[in-house]
Amino acid sequence: MPFSPELIIYGVIFIAVLALVEGVYLTVFGRSISLNSRVNRRLEMLDKGTKRAEVLEQLRKEMQQHGKVRSIPLYSMLASKAQKAAIAFTPKQLMMMMAGVTVFAFIGLTIGTNTGLLMTVIISIMMGVGGIYFWVSMKAGKRLSMIEEQLPDAIELMVRSLRVGHPFSSAIQIVSREVEDPLATEFGVIADESAYGRDVGEALKDMAERLDMQDLRFLAVAVTIQQQSGGNLAEILAGLSKVIRARFRLFRRVKAITAEAKWSGKFLSGFPVAALIFINLSDPHYYDEVQTHSLFIPACITVGLFLAANLFVMRILTDIKV
Questions:
Q1: What is the tens place of the pLDDT at every residue in 109-152?
Q2: Residue 15: Cβ within 10 Å count
Q3: Number of domains comprising the chain
Q4: Tell me: the pLDDT tens digits for 150-200?
Q5: How far is C-alpha 62 from the chain's CA centre?
Q6: The pTM is what?
Q7: Contact predicate 148/213, CB 8 Å
Q8: Cys-Cys link to 158, which of 100, 171, 284, 289 (CB 3.0-4.6 A)?
Q9: Are residues 226 and 253 in the same domain?
């Protein structure tokens, strides 16, 4: 059972798939859409001369388009994460990207490996669908993490704005100008919707449900209650900011405490695989005597299932809700 260099080729092609998707995305929509960009995308679009109504329509389309196509069987796996990531690709374009990277992977596997046609097709589809899913998941996770970190500062900025006499709609507008993306564009859309007559509390609730973030739900509820019953909104938001910061610190503490268990599970599942690769590289004929045994394949499948079960169980044990 010698180690096959084709495994390395599979990994290289998968990484190339991710790089290709990211490159096409940034080429089509520009560097400002990157999460690493310090440019507020909404303000950049306005600065280029695009009308405010057109900017609002474009951003709302990007934020909501993926949530409307959950009924498509293949795309339903991506819809929720693509909506959270606000992927600018339309659902049709994203599925075309799946097909494109599948063809790219098929060509790469055909040239670089000696795998049979059927297996090449299966692996290519897995790379095409899996690569897009991994890319979208990565985008969604990074974007939500950034919003969670930005939110307390944004609320405190609104509190200071309210205390100097600005109305709440102006406070949201200030946040959309002063903070960085991705939160700036989200609040900019709310500010524009408010300017065109939509209720601010309703817009905040819609954003919270779309991003599925508990802290944003707290903000939407606080604003809605204040609109209906009155009270000092600045004091309410100041208290909310403290609660969010406390939850964030607790979340980081839980993450630090469970990090050892998570990496232990990954190590215990990865070590046998690494040992297998090392043994085959150092002695390619080490398993020759047992390969013909009737229990060899079932034993390999059983070990693989146990390793996968270990990761699954450790993930459940360390998934602590804050």
A1: 787 777 677 777 887 888 888 888 888 888 888 888 888 888 88
A2: 11
A3: 2
A4: 888 888 888 888 888 888 888 888 888 888 878 888 888 888 888 887 788
A5: 15
A6: 0.72
A7: yes
A8: 171
A9: no
